[in-house]
Amino acid sequence: MEIRHSRHYKEVERFNTEELRENFLVQNLFVPGELKLVYSHEDRMIVGGACPTNEAIKLDAGDALRTEYFLERREIGIVNIGGAGLVTAGGKDYELGPRDCLYVGKGVEEVLFKNVDEENPAKFYLMSTTAHKEIEIQKMSIQEATPNHLGAVETSNKRTIYQYIHAGGLKSCQLMLGMTILEDNSLWNTMPAHVHDRRSEIYLYFDMKEDTRVFHFMGKPDETRHLVMKNEEVVISPPYSIHSGVATGSYTFIWAMGGENYTFTDMDAVAMDELK
């Protein structure tokens, strides 16, 4: 498991491009036949990818967590961004089609990821936070998720937010997770920007063509920086940072949050004239 330590915003203001990417950009999560995990000290979130082939992949962090098994003191949200797959959790198989979500709570000792179709393999995106109580395993397909329509064509950010893990959906201790799908010719996400000093956020950008890029903006509102990102890359957003992007082509992204509170709408808006 790769470890990413927290960085103070005064330090980040002095980072060059490579330092910014080294600390906040996560690449190469989806490797066939492997489980890849990155531990961020921003609210102790773990982001990962599991790409099973012929053999099942077990959710295992080795001795990095100093626990007997991964979910001994954690919970996890799993979204399949590839072809059909299976997740075995608590001794039961859960079928996950493209963009379906599964929540697995504290205390589940074994979680296995399995592929179904060799020609169109599953890709499981993983987001984990610490947990204080046991909550039952829950599944939600994208068809079951309530769509929240935001933005407009005039502002180039007409989009639909699907909230999977939150107070009104799949229950959790602190993890919140959802997916945002932008409509054709809408390339901006989350603008005007906001911050939420009480929790961190992690984005996965995907469904991108190989020759397109997302310009992801981060940093304090009056000291913004940017990362140039490609398909299936992840950005870690500290509590002080805005998190907004614009792309050269269509894309989808998964957002996940963990931290002090469990209220999706708890955010501090940033006016356009505050951005620098």
Topology of this structure?
Elements: E1 2-4, H1 9-12, H2 17-24, E2 25-26, E3 35-40, E4 45-50, E5 57-58, E6 74-80, E7 85-89, E8 92-96, E9 101-104, E10 111-115, E11 124-130, E12 138-140, E13 147-150, E14 159-165, E15 176-182, E16 188-189, E17 194-195, E18 199-206, E19 214-218, E20 225-229, E21 233-237, E22 244-247, E23 252-259, E24 268-269
Parallel strand pairs: 1-3
Antiparallel strand pairs: 2-21, 3-4, 4-11, 5-10, 6-9, 6-11, 7-8, 7-10, 9-12, 13-14, 14-15, 15-23, 16-22, 17-24, 18-21, 18-23, 19-20, 19-22
Give the gist of this structure:
By secondary structure, this protein is mainly β. The protein is built from two helices and 24 strands.
Question: How does this structure look, described?
Answer:
By secondary structure, the chain is mainly beta. The chain has a single domain (2-274), classed as Jelly Rolls (Sandwich), CATH 2.60.120.10. 4% of the residues lie in helices and 41% in strands. It is built from 2 helices and 24 strands. Strands 1-3-4-11-6-9-12 form a 7-stranded mixed beta sheet, with no helix packed on it. The protein has a 7-stranded antiparallel beta sheet with strand order 2-21-18-23-15-14-13. Strand 19 and strand 20 (225-229) form a beta hairpin. The two termini are 35 Å apart.
